[in-house]
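On to our target:
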Amino acid sequence: MLSDVLSAEELAVLDALAKETIAPVVPPPHVRAQVLAQIARTPQLDERVPGPDESRTVRADEGRWVDVAPGVRTKKLTKDARRNTMTCLLELAPQSILPAHDHKGAEESYVVRGSCHIGGVALAAGDFHQVDAGSHHGDVVASADGCLLLITVDLADVA
């Protein structure tokens, strides 16, 4: 019995065959206009935004960078008193070092760009690292390209 459904491989073969054998046709201007008008009338995404009491937006050119060590700066994005956390950006210039430190609360770090070592752990763009409350880690050392981290820390560690 033959299946009514084509496999992904069979569809790929048919797609390649169509590309090789069927010449593209430019639609008449009125057809193109009708298609574009329909696209314009069709909602593309939900553009509703929570109100100012429900959300916060910090644009890339907003906020204040604060130097915390030579070649190391931070920018606060938000403070969540309910969760007792603060989320910030931590930017390290190439080869800069944020000295070793202890954590009263947990810390979550996500590497946005560049790479670094947090203690003995090597991290690159896209990597995530978490430490528990009461932990200690060694120096944060930026690579030759520098590093930008998105960090969420316990408020006890920023006081």
